[in-house]
């Protein structure tokens, strides 16, 4: 779980690359993503994040200096390739969208198919019973 500050409005949010619930912005380009990655509890304490968030809310122009920006952009690109950090940062967004998928229709369809299958096997069981009785009845008649 990553605590981060929204690069756009300064509100605290979970995950650096997630959509902000306050302003609904998602960091999309390298600059925004590098900035968002920097504004997380991986690099700052929660107190510092609150401070940075307040500054952004007050309209102060918070930016990474060019050297830091380049560092975070390259760090982010490295992390993208194979790193638990990005998985953790993006994990929240993935599980959120998965939860949104409704499987109600599929469940109903399966339940209906099960009912039909049960009905069919019930009918064929009755038919088999009837045929079996008739068969044994005939056999008894022959024995007599
Ligand atoms: Zn925001």
Task: Report mean pLDDT, rounded to a whole number.
Answer: 81
For the record, the count of structural domains works out to 2
Bound ions, cofactors and other small molecules, one mention each: zinc ion
Q: Could you give the order of the helices and strands?
A: EEHHHHH
The assembly state of the depicted protein chains is single chain
Contiguous low-pLDDT stretches (5 residues minimum) are none
Q: Structural class given helices, strands, pairing?
A: mainly alpha
In the sheet with the most strands, the strands line up as 1-2
Radius of gyration, rounded? 31 Å
Give the CA-CA distance, first to last residue: 83 Å
Structure summary, number of beta strands: 2
The major beta sheet can be summarized as: 2 strands, antiparallel
Q: Please tally the helical runs, counting DSSP H or I stretches of 4 or more residues.
A: 5
| Helix content class | 55-70%
> What spatial form do the alpha-carbon principal axes imply?
elongated
Share in β-strands: under 5%
Transmembrane segments: 109-130
Keywords: Membrane, Transmembrane, Transmembrane helix
